[in-house]
Amino acid sequence: MKKIGCLLIHGFGGSVYEVSPLAEYLERKGYGVICPALKGHTGRKEDLRGITYHDWLDSAEMALMELLESHDYIFLIGFSMGGLIAINLASKYNVSGLITINTPIYYWDFKRIYLNIVHDLRNKEYTNIHRYMKSSGNTTLSALFHFKLLLTRTKPIIRNVKCPLFVTQALDDDTVRKQSARYIHERMSGKRKKLRFYDHGGHLILRSSSASKVMEDIWTFINEIE
């Protein structure tokens, strides 16, 4: 029986925490899964200093090499900025499929951020406010600069991706605007591509009430390709 390997790539300033529910789900399905920690993403702001987007690409590529050694089918799954990295790898290697989750082309939905803050204040929950404060304190200006460079580099590469594609996007994501999903889906040149929006889930959709549906859809996509 041929072996399926999945490379899960977390987002900018984040960690494997963002994708671990999906990793555990796919492992239960019998797939080989690797979730590399991108260089500098230790949770400490100072560790991002001097790190470039090339380092992030290298972190993911090294993990891909490990999967390629022992698996017949490889699926690249990128969350947020991890989707940009996955697009770069899919344009370079012959993989079985590419899945992007809330991957940015157009970022920061300021209307949604405002509504989230109002919701927190009215309900005295402060969940979103704490998340925004934590996010702003976990990165550096140089890291933000290299995120932008990675985005700029990736946009023209999308057309080079010819493997099957599944683009997923939460409509209430405050970090990535829904137009990003359409941009990726429309510009990818392969014939087998799928786009799915979810009404709820926010940016950390794999940690939301929509996670089970997203994971099931990803598993279905992999099985259809396999």
UniProtKB/TrEMBL annotation:
<dbReference type="Pfam" id="PF00561">
    <property type="entry name" value="Abhydrolase_1"/>
</dbReference>
<dbReference type="InterPro" id="IPR012354">
    <property type="entry name" value="Esterase_lipase"/>
</dbReference>
<feature type="active site" description="Charge relay system">
    <location>
        <position position="203"/>
    </location>
</feature>
<dbReference type="InterPro" id="IPR000073">
    <property type="entry name" value="AB_hydrolase_1"/>
</dbReference>
<feature type="binding site">
    <location>
        <position position="81"/>
    </location>
    <ligand>
        <name>substrate</name>
    </ligand>
</feature>
<protein>
    <submittedName>
        <fullName>Carboxylesterase</fullName>
        <ecNumber>3.1.1.1</ecNumber>
    </submittedName>
</protein>
<feature type="binding site">
    <location>
        <position position="12"/>
    </location>
    <ligand>
        <name>substrate</name>
    </ligand>
</feature>
<dbReference type="InterPro" id="IPR051044">
    <property type="entry name" value="MAG_DAG_Lipase"/>
</dbReference>
<feature type="domain" description="AB hydrolase-1">
    <location>
        <begin position="7"/>
        <end position="114"/>
    </location>
</feature>
<keyword id="KW-0378">Hydrolase</keyword>
<dbReference type="InterPro" id="IPR029058">
    <property type="entry name" value="AB_hydrolase_fold"/>
</dbReference>
<dbReference type="GO" id="GO:0106435">
    <property type="term" value="F:carboxylesterase activity"/>
</dbReference>
<feature type="active site" description="Charge relay system">
    <location>
        <position position="173"/>
    </location>
</feature>
<feature type="active site" description="Nucleophile">
    <location>
        <position position="80"/>
    </location>
</feature>
